Amino acid sequence: MPISIKQLRYAAAVARTGHFGRAAELCSVSQPALSQQILSLEAHCGAALFDRLKTGTMITPFGRQFIDLAQKAIEAADAVNALAAGHTGQLDRPLRFGLIPTVAPYLLPDVFPALQSQLPDLDFIISENRTDALLAGLIDGSLDIALIATELPESGPRLVSAPLFEDRFVLATSPAETVSAPISLSAVSPDRILLLDEGHCFRDQTIAACRIESDTTPRTFAATSLSTIVEFVANGQGVTLLPQIALRKEATDARIAIHQLASPDAERLLRLAWRQATPFAPTFERIAEVIRATRSPGSA
């Protein structure tokens, strides 16, 4: 049987994530189904695309050549589908929407019901991932839009974005801390600041805001979520920055004290990004409008 675009998408997802399970989640299929398609693809090629390791996968030299060509085929298929649907400006499939982990749990409870209510003709597939994976998803066509908090890359297919709103940072401590608000970040010892794991853009933004020099000091703690960091702060094991939109969820514990930052404060700009070469830009702009209108009250 000929190679299908679906198989190419699965292979591209494995190459991007380095993991069959995460690739299956990204493609909204079961891992066995994705694995079987990759095996069929490798059998058709007569060569392995990936080396299976205990910790994930590594693309083979042949696999790299294959994926490079596959990506061009995926982009061409997406362009054909977009052209066919372009006369209506409406997607004929679920819209694939990715968000960074420091936004998704705080905005989705408000935003997703609003999107369903105000855009009833759209179906959504929601995923959560780090910024680099979301941008890669926009580039390879596995995502339609992504909610991010960084500048767009200059290389690769051109991406565009619609600004949503500014999300200010605050300092979270235990109530036992002696703090005079508003507090200057220069008064906070960098060694006491708890950070997210590497790869999170909010980690990089915290490092920049607190002027932690290249974060070269070895750290014994790096969390995968803000909720984990907040628990450590509540137990007096450090302090952290939190985005304003997270306060409604993360600052309800009486063991957490929130302090405003002195000027110049720190913040991030949330934006909705997509590929410039799309006929669905008006729909994406409308989604941005809904998000602006239904942003979390805590973000004001």
Spell out the blueprint of helices and strands:
Blueprint: H1 5-17, H2 20-27, H3 31-45, E1 50-53, E2 56-59, H4 61-85, E3 95-99, H5 104-118, E4 124-128, H6 131-140, E5 145-148, E6 159-173, H7 201-209, H8 226-234, E7 240-243, H9 247-250, E8 257-259, E9 267-275, H10 281-293
Parallel strand pairs: 3-4, 3-5
Antiparallel strand pairs: 1-2, 5-9, 6-7, 6-8, 6-9
CATH third-level topology of the largest domain: D-Maltodextrin-Binding Protein, domain 2
Mean pLDDT, all residues: 87
Query: How many beta-strand elements?
Result: 9
Low-confidence stretches: 296-300
β-sheet strand percentage: 15-25%
- The helical percent reads 40-55%
CATH fourth-tier homologous superfamily of the largest domain? Periplasmic binding protein-like II
| Count of helix runs | 10
Outline: globular
Structure description:
The chain has 300 residues and is α+β, with helices and mostly antiparallel strands. The chain has three domains: 5-85, Orthogonal Bundle (Arc Repressor Mutant, subunit A), CATH 1.10.10; 95-165 and 269-299, D-Maltodextrin-Binding Protein, domain 2 (3-Layer(aba) Sandwich), CATH 3.40.190.10; 167-267, D-Maltodextrin-Binding Protein, domain 2 (3-Layer(aba) Sandwich), CATH 3.40.190.10. It contains ten helices and nine strands. The strands form two sheets. Strands 3, 4, 5, 6, 7, 8 and 9 form a seven-stranded mixed beta sheet that branches. The chain has a two-stranded antiparallel sheet with strand order 1-2. Helix 2 (20-27) crosses helix 3. The longest helix is centred in the first third of the chain and has 25 residues, at 61-85. The relative contact order is 0.15.
